[in-house]
Amino acid sequence: MTYIGRFAPSPSGPLHFGSLVAALGSYFQARAQQGQWRVRIEDLDPPREMPGAADAILRTLEAYQLHWDGEVVYQSQRHDLYQSQIDHWLEHNAAYYCECTRKQIKAEGGFYRGTCRNKHITSPKACSVRLCMTQPVYQFYDIKHGEIKIPKPLADEDFIIKRRDGLFAYNLAVVLDDIDQGVTEVVRGADLIEPTGRQLSLYKLLAKPQVSYLHLPLALDQHGHKLSKQNHATAIDDHQPRPALLNAMQFLGFQVPDDVSQAKIEEILQWGVAHWQVSQLPMALEITPRFSNAAR
Ligand code: GLU
């Protein structure tokens, strides 16, 4: 079976050091197995997006010589796929409308207890859609970290597949797209370990073969916060890719020899593909990078 990996950035801002780590980790893991590497723009949540960010991300990937296979997929163009799956589940009583607010759920202890499961709400104004969780996943295997446990109340929850504001939920879109794109392995940041259980439940409900998972260490800033586009993490430099590329490779556990670090960008990447091993990755799930040069 051909390996198909992917990088799936949300266009909430330009690519920063943390997202470069995710891009490179998924790229090396795919290319080291002669696999394909696809790019999907996860533009599901317009209020959190920044105009022009999707194009900027693609330009940055090109500047770093990270060439993807096939066409870029945009989640904003795939609402029909998501909605038709939701309609199918609603028709078969495998999903239902829910009118509970976040405040109510918090008051009940923070986990949703299926309050609307048997209410049979038919006029779904200001309702979310929840999935009946009949296939909970309590643990999964991560290629680097081994068995990872999911807390039972979280795994058992009837989670949201469409939000009250009409936006499709990340967990649903990511799984339907990964299935549709033939993805065989998901390599991404450790901040997405928790939703992995829910995503695996969806594979089971859809009776699709499961993918494998590799979660990469998350880059933190000096204050211990995740580098994120929402926190306005500094964009990496498109004109001088070398410093950030080398720092991201060091973060991923490479010791790049001096002569390689001075080679062309595509040669550095080729060296990375040839030397990449999951065992070189640090075990820590979160790391504050410290580099002698300031490029992040
Ligand atoms: N779009 C998500 C993000 O930018 C990543 C989704 C995934 O890799 O599953 O954080």
Topology:
Layout: E1 4-7, H1 17-31, E2 36-41, H2 53-63, E3 73-74, H3 79-91, E4 95-98, H4 102-107, E5 128-131, E6 139-142, E7 146-149, H5 152-156, E8 160-162, H6 170-180, E9 185-189, H7 196-205, E10 212-216, E11 218-219, H8 241-251, H9 258-261, H10 265-275, E12 286-287
Parallel strand pairs: 1-2, 2-3, 9-10, 11-12
Antiparallel strand pairs: 4-5, 5-8, 6-7
The structure holds glutamic acid.
Domain Glutamyl/glutaminyl-tRNA synthetase class Ib catalytic: 6-268
Motif ('KMSKS' region): 226-230
EC number: 6.1.1.-
Tally of contiguous helical segments:
10
Report mean pLDDT, rounded to a whole number: 94
Distinct ligand kinds: glutamic acid
Given this structure, which CATH class of the largest domain is correct?
Alpha Beta
Q: How many beta-strand elements? A: 12
Placed side by side, the strands forming the largest sheet appear as: 1-2-3
The H-and-E topology, N to C, reads as EHEHEHEHEEEHEHEHEEHHHE
CA gyration radius, whole angstroms? 20 Å
- Biggest pleated-sheet summary: 3 strands, parallel
Structural class: alpha/beta
By CATH, the superfamily of the largest domain comes out as HUPs
- Write the CATH architecture name of the largest domain: 3-Layer(aba) Sandwich
Tally the structural domains: 2
Q: Which runs of at least 5 residues are low in confidence (pLDDT < 50)?
A: 292-296
Based on Cα principal axes, name the global outline.
elongated
Sheet-strand content, in percent, reads 15-25%
Percent of residues in helices comes to 25-40%
Beginning-to-end CA distance, first to last residue = 36 Å
CATH fold call of the largest domain: Rossmann fold
